[in-house]
Amino acid sequence: MSAANPTPSGGLKSQLSELLPIDWEMLRHAGAEPVPFHLKKWWFCLGGTPMMLFIVQVITGVMLTFYYVPSPDHAYASVSTITHEIRFGWFIRSLHMWSSNFMIVAVILHMLRVYFTRAYRYPRQLNWMIGFMLLGITMTFGFTGYSLVYEQLSYWGATVATNLANAVPIVGPMVAFFMRGGPEVGAATLTRFYMLHIGVLPLAAMVMISAHVLLIRLHGVTELQFEGEKPSTDEDRFFRFWPEHVTTELLIGVLLMYILTILSLILPASLGAPADPTTTPAHIKPEWYFYWDFRLLKLTSLKLSVLLTGAIGGIAFFWPFIDGWLEKKFKRGVDRIVVAVGVLAFLGFLVLTVWEASAH
Protein backbone atom coordinates (compact mmCIF):
# COMPACT_ATOMS: atom_id res chain seq x y z
CA MET A 1 0.00 0.00 0.00
CA SER A 2 1.38 3.42 -0.90
CA ALA A 3 0.47 6.84 0.41
CA ALA A 4 -1.70 9.08 -1.71
CA ASN A 5 0.26 11.63 -3.72
CA PRO A 6 -2.08 14.57 -4.32
CA THR A 7 -1.38 16.70 -7.36
CA PRO A 8 -1.07 20.47 -6.72
CA SER A 9 -3.95 22.39 -8.18
CA GLY A 10 -4.47 26.00 -9.14
CA GLY A 11 -1.88 28.68 -9.84
CA LEU A 12 1.37 29.52 -8.06
CA LYS A 13 -0.37 31.61 -5.37
CA SER A 14 -2.74 28.75 -4.59
CA GLN A 15 0.13 26.26 -4.40
CA LEU A 16 2.11 28.54 -2.05
CA SER A 17 -0.94 28.80 0.19
CA GLU A 18 -1.09 25.00 0.35
CA LEU A 19 2.65 24.67 1.03
CA LEU A 20 2.52 27.39 3.72
CA PRO A 21 -0.94 27.26 5.29
CA ILE A 22 -0.62 30.68 6.94
CA ASP A 23 -3.44 33.12 7.53
CA TRP A 24 -2.03 35.89 5.31
CA GLU A 25 -4.99 38.14 6.05
CA MET A 26 -4.12 38.02 9.74
CA LEU A 27 -0.50 38.91 8.96
CA ARG A 28 -1.63 41.84 6.82
CA HIS A 29 -3.85 43.02 9.66
CA ALA A 30 -0.98 42.72 12.17
CA GLY A 31 1.34 44.60 9.84
CA ALA A 32 -1.10 47.45 9.43
CA GLU A 33 -1.64 47.98 13.17
CA PRO A 34 -1.39 51.62 14.28
CA VAL A 35 1.80 52.95 15.89
CA PRO A 36 1.81 56.16 18.02
CA PHE A 37 2.71 59.13 15.84
CA HIS A 38 5.56 60.33 18.07
CA LEU A 39 7.59 57.30 16.94
CA LYS A 40 8.07 59.05 13.59
CA LYS A 41 10.72 61.06 15.44
CA TRP A 42 13.71 58.67 15.34
CA TRP A 43 15.02 59.71 18.77
CA PHE A 44 11.79 58.36 20.32
CA CYS A 45 12.23 55.03 18.56
CA LEU A 46 15.67 53.75 19.58
CA GLY A 47 14.47 50.31 20.65
CA GLY A 48 14.90 48.79 17.18
CA THR A 49 18.45 50.13 16.79
CA PRO A 50 20.09 47.81 19.37
CA MET A 51 18.25 44.87 17.81
CA MET A 52 19.70 45.67 14.36
CA LEU A 53 23.17 46.09 15.88
CA PHE A 54 22.72 42.78 17.72
CA ILE A 55 22.12 41.09 14.35
CA VAL A 56 25.37 42.63 13.04
CA GLN A 57 27.12 41.34 16.18
CA VAL A 58 25.81 37.82 15.65
CA ILE A 59 26.77 37.66 11.95
CA THR A 60 30.28 39.10 12.42
CA GLY A 61 30.79 37.09 15.63
CA VAL A 62 30.01 33.80 13.88
CA MET A 63 32.54 34.71 11.18
CA LEU A 64 35.22 35.42 13.79
CA THR A 65 34.65 32.12 15.65
CA PHE A 66 35.85 30.18 12.59
CA TYR A 67 39.36 31.50 13.22
CA TYR A 68 39.52 32.34 16.93
CA VAL A 69 41.21 29.85 19.29
CA PRO A 70 40.13 30.25 22.97
CA SER A 71 43.36 29.27 24.72
CA PRO A 72 46.08 31.46 26.30
CA ASP A 73 48.71 29.97 23.97
CA HIS A 74 46.80 30.70 20.77
CA ALA A 75 44.14 33.39 21.48
CA TYR A 76 46.33 36.42 20.76
CA ALA A 77 47.96 34.75 17.75
CA SER A 78 44.55 33.84 16.29
CA VAL A 79 43.32 37.44 16.69
CA SER A 80 46.56 38.62 15.05
CA THR A 81 45.95 36.20 12.17
CA ILE A 82 42.38 37.50 11.76
CA THR A 83 43.64 41.09 11.79
CA HIS A 84 46.67 40.77 9.52
CA GLU A 85 46.36 37.62 7.40
CA ILE A 86 42.75 36.55 6.85
CA ARG A 87 41.21 38.33 3.87
CA PHE A 88 38.94 41.12 5.19
CA GLY A 89 39.43 39.74 8.70
CA TRP A 90 40.41 43.19 9.98
CA PHE A 91 37.19 44.60 8.53
CA ILE A 92 34.92 41.96 10.10
CA ARG A 93 36.67 42.40 13.45
CA SER A 94 36.31 46.19 13.19
CA LEU A 95 32.60 45.90 12.34
CA HIS A 96 32.18 43.64 15.36
CA MET A 97 33.97 46.09 17.64
CA TRP A 98 32.18 49.22 16.45
CA SER A 99 28.73 47.63 16.41
CA SER A 100 29.37 46.50 20.01
CA ASN A 101 30.13 50.07 21.07
CA PHE A 102 27.18 51.47 19.13
CA MET A 103 24.87 48.88 20.68
CA ILE A 104 25.84 49.97 24.19
CA VAL A 105 25.30 53.64 23.27
CA ALA A 106 21.92 52.82 21.68
CA VAL A 107 20.70 50.89 24.74
CA ILE A 108 21.80 53.73 27.06
CA LEU A 109 20.06 56.36 24.89
CA HIS A 110 16.92 54.22 24.69
CA MET A 111 16.81 53.88 28.47
CA LEU A 112 17.38 57.62 28.88
CA ARG A 113 14.42 58.30 26.58
CA VAL A 114 12.22 55.90 28.53
CA TYR A 115 13.40 57.42 31.83
CA PHE A 116 12.84 61.08 30.96
CA THR A 117 9.42 60.40 29.42
CA ARG A 118 8.56 58.23 32.47
CA ALA A 119 7.37 55.49 30.13
CA TYR A 120 8.32 52.93 32.80
CA ARG A 121 5.30 53.64 35.01
CA TYR A 122 2.48 51.21 35.72
CA PRO A 123 1.94 48.74 34.14
CA ARG A 124 5.38 48.80 32.43
CA GLN A 125 7.65 48.46 35.47
CA LEU A 126 8.70 44.90 34.57
CA ASN A 127 9.71 45.95 31.06
CA TRP A 128 12.02 48.63 32.49
CA MET A 129 13.67 45.96 34.65
CA ILE A 130 14.10 43.66 31.64
CA GLY A 131 15.58 46.59 29.70
CA PHE A 132 18.03 47.24 32.54
CA MET A 133 19.07 43.57 32.47
CA LEU A 134 19.57 43.87 28.71
CA LEU A 135 21.91 46.82 29.36
CA GLY A 136 23.89 44.64 31.78
CA ILE A 137 24.01 41.79 29.24
CA THR A 138 25.17 44.20 26.52
CA MET A 139 27.97 45.58 28.69
CA THR A 140 29.01 42.04 29.68
CA PHE A 141 29.12 41.19 25.97
CA GLY A 142 31.58 44.04 25.49
CA PHE A 143 33.67 43.08 28.51
CA THR A 144 34.00 39.38 27.62
CA GLY A 145 34.68 40.17 23.96
CA TYR A 146 37.41 42.64 24.95
CA SER A 147 38.97 40.03 27.27
CA LEU A 148 39.05 37.38 24.52
CA VAL A 149 41.65 39.37 22.57
CA TYR A 150 44.09 38.42 25.35
CA GLU A 151 46.29 41.44 24.91
CA GLN A 152 48.02 43.10 27.84
CA LEU A 153 45.31 45.64 28.69
CA SER A 154 42.42 43.20 28.25
CA TYR A 155 44.15 40.59 30.46
CA TRP A 156 44.71 43.05 33.29
CA GLY A 157 41.25 44.52 32.78
CA ALA A 158 39.84 41.02 33.40
CA THR A 159 42.05 40.78 36.49
CA VAL A 160 40.66 44.04 37.89
CA ALA A 161 37.08 42.97 37.08
CA THR A 162 37.44 39.67 38.92
CA ASN A 163 39.00 41.48 41.89
CA LEU A 164 35.98 43.79 41.95
CA ALA A 165 33.68 40.76 41.86
CA ASN A 166 35.66 39.24 44.71
CA ALA A 167 34.93 42.33 46.85
CA VAL A 168 31.14 41.85 46.61
CA PRO A 169 29.82 40.99 50.10
CA ILE A 170 28.97 37.33 50.87
CA VAL A 171 28.84 35.91 47.30
CA GLY A 172 31.87 37.79 45.91
CA PRO A 173 34.60 35.17 46.44
CA MET A 174 32.41 32.43 44.93
CA VAL A 175 31.54 34.60 41.90
CA ALA A 176 35.18 35.59 41.36
CA PHE A 177 36.35 31.97 41.60
CA PHE A 178 33.70 30.94 39.07
CA MET A 179 34.70 33.76 36.67
CA ARG A 180 38.38 32.87 36.87
CA GLY A 181 37.88 29.12 36.95
CA GLY A 182 40.45 29.08 39.73
CA PRO A 183 42.38 31.39 42.05
CA GLU A 184 43.71 33.62 39.25
CA VAL A 185 43.04 34.65 35.65
CA GLY A 186 44.30 31.98 33.25
CA ALA A 187 43.32 29.34 30.70
CA ALA A 188 40.05 28.44 32.47
CA THR A 189 39.08 32.15 32.58
CA LEU A 190 39.49 32.51 28.84
CA THR A 191 37.41 29.38 28.19
CA ARG A 192 34.63 30.59 30.50
CA PHE A 193 34.58 34.07 28.96
CA TYR A 194 34.44 32.49 25.50
CA MET A 195 31.48 30.29 26.44
CA LEU A 196 29.75 33.27 28.02
CA HIS A 197 30.37 35.40 24.93
CA ILE A 198 29.24 32.94 22.25
CA GLY A 199 26.73 30.80 24.17
CA VAL A 200 25.26 32.02 27.44
CA LEU A 201 25.00 35.76 26.70
CA PRO A 202 23.44 35.42 23.20
CA LEU A 203 20.84 33.01 24.61
CA ALA A 204 20.14 35.31 27.56
CA ALA A 205 19.90 38.30 25.21
CA MET A 206 17.43 36.55 22.90
CA VAL A 207 15.26 35.47 25.85
CA MET A 208 15.27 39.00 27.31
CA ILE A 209 14.60 40.63 23.93
CA SER A 210 11.69 38.23 23.32
CA ALA A 211 10.24 39.03 26.76
CA HIS A 212 10.79 42.75 26.17
CA VAL A 213 9.01 42.71 22.79
CA LEU A 214 6.22 40.49 24.16
CA LEU A 215 5.48 42.95 26.98
CA ILE A 216 5.50 45.84 24.49
CA ARG A 217 2.97 43.92 22.41
CA LEU A 218 0.81 43.18 25.45
CA HIS A 219 0.91 46.68 26.97
CA GLY A 220 1.29 48.64 23.74
CA VAL A 221 3.69 51.51 23.14
CA THR A 222 3.37 54.44 25.53
CA GLU A 223 1.58 57.22 23.67
CA LEU A 224 3.26 60.56 24.37
CA GLN A 225 1.55 63.93 24.03
CA PHE A 226 3.47 67.14 23.51
CA GLU A 227 2.56 70.76 24.17
CA GLY A 228 0.97 72.46 21.19
CA GLU A 229 -0.08 69.15 19.60
CA LYS A 230 -3.82 68.51 19.69
CA PRO A 231 -4.62 65.52 17.47
CA SER A 232 -8.25 65.50 16.43
CA THR A 233 -8.48 62.09 14.73
CA ASP A 234 -6.78 58.70 14.92
CA GLU A 235 -4.99 59.55 11.66
CA ASP A 236 -3.26 62.39 13.49
CA ARG A 237 -2.35 60.16 16.45
CA PHE A 238 -1.21 56.99 14.70
CA PHE A 239 0.50 55.70 11.56
CA ARG A 240 0.85 52.18 10.16
CA PHE A 241 3.48 49.73 11.34
CA TRP A 242 3.85 48.51 7.74
CA PRO A 243 5.13 49.99 5.56
CA GLU A 244 5.81 53.37 7.23
CA HIS A 245 7.45 52.31 10.50
CA VAL A 246 9.31 49.30 9.06
CA THR A 247 10.66 51.46 6.20
CA THR A 248 11.95 54.02 8.69
CA GLU A 249 13.70 51.31 10.71
CA LEU A 250 15.27 49.86 7.55
CA LEU A 251 16.57 53.30 6.54
CA ILE A 252 18.10 53.71 10.01
CA GLY A 253 19.69 50.27 9.59
CA VAL A 254 21.22 51.29 6.24
CA LEU A 255 22.56 54.50 7.81
CA LEU A 256 24.03 52.52 10.71
CA MET A 257 25.83 50.14 8.33
CA TYR A 258 27.21 53.13 6.41
CA ILE A 259 28.57 54.70 9.62
CA LEU A 260 29.95 51.36 10.87
CA THR A 261 31.71 50.81 7.53
CA ILE A 262 33.26 54.29 7.50
CA LEU A 263 34.48 53.92 11.09
CA SER A 264 35.87 50.44 10.36
CA LEU A 265 37.81 51.84 7.42
CA ILE A 266 39.11 54.96 9.18
CA LEU A 267 39.57 53.56 12.70
CA PRO A 268 39.97 49.77 12.40
CA ALA A 269 40.26 47.57 15.50
CA SER A 270 43.79 47.74 16.87
CA LEU A 271 45.90 45.09 18.58
CA GLY A 272 48.16 45.86 21.53
CA ALA A 273 50.96 43.84 23.09
CA PRO A 274 50.17 40.21 24.03
CA ALA A 275 49.13 39.43 27.60
CA ASP A 276 51.97 39.11 30.09
CA PRO A 277 50.79 37.90 33.53
CA THR A 278 54.22 38.72 35.03
CA THR A 279 54.22 42.43 34.11
CA THR A 280 51.57 44.87 35.29
CA PRO A 281 51.13 47.72 32.75
CA ALA A 282 51.62 51.28 33.98
CA HIS A 283 48.15 52.37 32.94
CA ILE A 284 45.31 49.82 33.08
CA LYS A 285 42.18 50.93 31.24
CA PRO A 286 38.85 49.10 30.88
CA GLU A 287 36.52 49.75 27.97
CA TRP A 288 35.02 53.28 27.91
CA TYR A 289 31.62 52.22 29.32
CA PHE A 290 33.36 51.15 32.54
CA TYR A 291 35.45 54.33 32.86
CA TRP A 292 33.02 55.83 35.37
CA ASP A 293 33.28 52.79 37.64
CA PHE A 294 37.07 52.64 37.29
CA ARG A 295 37.34 56.31 38.28
CA LEU A 296 35.01 55.62 41.23
CA LEU A 297 37.40 52.84 42.28
CA LYS A 298 40.33 55.25 42.16
CA LEU A 299 38.46 57.88 44.19
CA THR A 300 37.32 55.47 46.91
CA SER A 301 38.43 51.94 47.79
CA LEU A 302 37.76 48.49 46.39
CA LYS A 303 34.94 47.56 48.78
CA LEU A 304 33.36 51.03 48.87
CA SER A 305 33.31 51.32 45.07
CA VAL A 306 31.65 47.90 44.82
CA LEU A 307 29.00 48.91 47.38
CA LEU A 308 28.36 52.24 45.61
CA THR A 309 28.10 50.51 42.22
CA GLY A 310 25.66 47.97 43.66
CA ALA A 311 23.57 50.73 45.28
CA ILE A 312 23.44 52.75 42.04
CA GLY A 313 22.48 49.63 40.06
CA GLY A 314 19.81 48.67 42.60
CA ILE A 315 18.24 52.15 42.54
CA ALA A 316 18.20 52.16 38.73
CA PHE A 317 16.75 48.63 38.56
CA PHE A 318 13.90 49.37 40.99
CA TRP A 319 13.39 52.98 39.89
CA PRO A 320 9.80 52.48 38.57
CA PHE A 321 8.72 51.50 42.09
CA ILE A 322 10.70 54.37 43.65
CA ASP A 323 8.96 56.68 41.19
CA GLY A 324 5.58 55.27 42.27
CA TRP A 325 6.47 55.94 45.92
CA LEU A 326 7.50 59.52 45.06
CA GLU A 327 4.19 59.98 43.23
CA LYS A 328 2.23 58.98 46.34
CA LYS A 329 4.47 60.97 48.68
CA PHE A 330 4.65 64.31 46.89
CA LYS A 331 1.62 64.21 44.55
CA ARG A 332 2.85 67.27 42.63
CA GLY A 333 6.26 68.18 41.28
CA VAL A 334 7.38 64.57 40.77
CA ASP A 335 8.28 65.29 37.13
CA ARG A 336 10.84 67.85 38.30
CA ILE A 337 12.30 65.44 40.86
CA VAL A 338 12.61 62.69 38.24
CA VAL A 339 14.27 65.05 35.74
CA ALA A 340 16.65 66.39 38.41
CA VAL A 341 17.69 62.89 39.50
CA GLY A 342 18.17 61.80 35.89
CA VAL A 343 20.22 64.87 34.93
CA LEU A 344 22.45 64.57 38.02
CA ALA A 345 22.99 60.83 37.45
CA PHE A 346 23.87 61.31 33.78
CA LEU A 347 26.18 64.26 34.53
CA GLY A 348 27.91 62.14 37.19
CA PHE A 349 28.40 59.33 34.67
CA LEU A 350 29.66 61.81 32.06
CA VAL A 351 32.08 63.61 34.40
CA LEU A 352 33.60 60.39 35.75
CA THR A 353 33.88 58.95 32.22
CA VAL A 354 35.58 62.04 30.75
CA TRP A 355 37.81 62.35 33.84
CA GLU A 356 39.04 58.78 33.45
CA ALA A 357 39.38 59.11 29.66
CA SER A 358 41.62 62.17 30.02
CA ALA A 359 43.78 60.59 32.77
CA HIS A 360 47.26 59.33 31.87
Would you write up a description of this structure?
The protein has 360 residues and is an all-alpha fold. The protein has a domain at 36-223 and 239-286: Cytochrome Bc1 Complex, Chain C (Up-down Bundle), CATH 1.20.810. Helix content is 68%, strand content 2%. The protein contains 15 helices and 2 strands. The chain has helices spanning 12-19, 24-31, 48-65, 75-84, 89-116, 125-148, 152-166, 172-180, 187-219, 234-237, 241-266, 291-299, 302-317, 319-330, 334-358; strands at residues 34-36, 238-240. The protein has a two-stranded antiparallel sheet with strand order 1-2. α5 (89-116) packs antiparallel against α6, α6 (125-148) packs across α7 (152-166) and α12 packs across α15. The longest helix has 33 residues, at 187-219. The radius of gyration is 24 Å and the shape is globular. The chain starts with 11 loop residues before the first helix and ends with a helix. 24% of the residues are buried. The mean pLDDT is 87.
